[in-house]
Specification:
CATH topology of the largest domain: Rossmann fold
Radius of gyration: 20 Å
Structural class: alpha/beta
Oligomer: single chain
CATH superfamily of the largest domain: Glucose-6-phosphate isomerase like protein, domain 1
CATH class of the largest domain: Alpha Beta
Order of helices and strands: HHEHEEHEHHEHHHHEHEHHEHEHH
Shape: globular
Number of helices: 16
Helix content: 40-55%
Largest sheet: 5 strands, parallel
Number of strands: 9
Distance between the termini: 40 Å
């Protein structure tokens, strides 16, 4: 009877606090020696996994003495890249998608491989995906590391809510377990309250009453380092409502082109604000600048530092997108283009 997938998505949203609480309460298995010894990383992922990959890169570069770079999946189509030697490959893919396997096929060019995924050999076999099960078994047999996070088989709908949240927490827990990490293992009292973050009533009302203003395009503005890993926040509107994916700008970058384009072709601006005093100042200036030229500006505020505020922004925008999705009866089961994307989604099988 859930022909649009909304009841399923409502249940998934409701289970996020319990899923993260379970991850926070669980005893983490010790990392493999090769993982602990890794100093240089190339990290990849696409879809919501791109945000996880970029978040992990930020954590490694800013909070440890190790170095990491993000590389899109197409960067692994070169079979003999000398840049891979001596580095550890990290791949994010909740379901070990076909394109994620392009990077995994290059693992022999790296000194070590780590896969963050909700899929393991057993769940892949139960889902009838024997090829993925075999790939994972081979990866483990070769000494690679599999770091699991929920939710396995989060399919049926195009948008995912649980896996993106769990993936960020898996990143935090992973980096906290590395020597030289400059933050402690995340605690429940640091993460779970952020799941109560919500969009302002003003933003909800205007998006419900005048969705066409946003459906024609809007901008997303925030501070660094959030601006480096806000991809999934923007993609929620594309995957959940089939609207254009909003471009993401750092506050100061916004004055170098995006503001002028937005002024020439007026559309709303959604601003993300953390808990720092400088962000408060940047938000005040941004809102004033936008309103002085007659542009709409809406602020989503999360009282947390950049290390953890992504959980609050995810929660708030999940609520917002789901409210609009339900109001507009967006079909999340038979989405546009379903089954017509294999020329690129299944690229791995052709190379």
């Amino acid at each position: 009877m859930d022909s649009l997938g909304h009841d399923l998505l409502r249940r998934r949203l409701a289970q996020i606090p319990a899923v993260l609480a379970g991850m926070l309460a669980a005893d983490s298995a010790p990392l493999l020696p090769a993982t602990r010894a890794s100093q240089r990383f190339i990290v990849t992922g696409t879809g919501s996994s791109e945000a996880h990959a970029r978040y992990l890169v930020m954590l490694l570069n800013l909070y440890t003495d190790r170095a990491a770079s993000y590389l899109p999946l197409s960067g692994f189509t070169d079979e003999h890249s000398p840049a891979f030697g001596g580095k550890t490959l990290i791949v994010f893919s909740q379901g070990v998608s076909p394109n994620a396997q392009i990077a995994l096929r290059r693992r022999t060019h790296f000194s070590h491989t780590i896969l963050f995924s909700a899929t393991n050999p057993e769940t892949a076999l139960r889902a009838g995906k024997a090829d993925r099960a075999a790939l994972l078994q081979q990866l483990l047999a070769e000494g690679g590391e599999l770091i699991e996070f929920p939710l396995a088989e989060e399919y049926t709908t195009l948008i995912r809510f649980v896996g993106p949240m769990a993936g960020y927490l898996a990143c935090l827990q992973f980096v906290a377990s590395l020597s030289s990490c400059r933050f402690c293992t995340p605690r429940a009292d640091q993460i779970l309250p952020l799941l109560e973050a919500a969009p302002s009533p003003e933003l909800v009302e205007v998006m419900l009453r005048f969705p066409e203003r946003f459906a024609r395009g809007f901008n997303l503005v925030t501070a660094a380092p959030i601006s480096d890993f806000a991809q999934n926040l923007a993609c929620k509107f594309m995957e959940g409502l089939f609207w254009p994916c909003p471009p993401i700008s750092d506050f100061l970058q916004f004055a170098h082109g995006p503001f002028q384009q937005t002024t020439a072709h007026p559309h709303p601006v959604l601003i993300l604000q953390g808990n720092s005093a400088i962000e408060a100042e940047l938000v005040t200036r941004s809102v004033r600048m936008l309103r002085e030229v007659g542009l709409e500006a809406y602020v989503v505020q999360v009282n947390a530092p950049p290390l953890t505020s992504i959980f609050g922004f995810e929660a708030a925008l999940n609520q917002l997108v789901f409210r609009v999705m339900a109001e507009r009866r967006v079909d999340q089961v038979n989405w546009p283009g379903k089954g017509r994307d294999d020329l690129l989604y299944g690229f791995c099988s052709d190379v």
